[in-house]
Amino acid sequence: MLDLLHVKLADDATRRHVLSARPDAPTVPDRPPRQRGVAMRRATVTALRRLADRISPDAVPVRRPYVPGT
Description:
The protein is mostly helical and 70 residues long. The protein has 2 helices and no strands. The longest helix has 18 residues, at 2-19. It is elongated and about 70 Å long.
């Protein structure tokens, strides 16, 4: 009984794989990329900076970001 189940599952998987290469195969559209907000990036940067300061507090001095025109 178990061998017949394996044969049936393998046959179904093979058919799905082979038929997926056909030009008229059904397609699933790609999901649009998730837009992460500025707040999420800022929180991640802050957390990573605090972690780096705990690991090596005096290794690299913190520099201000470059702002054009100042």
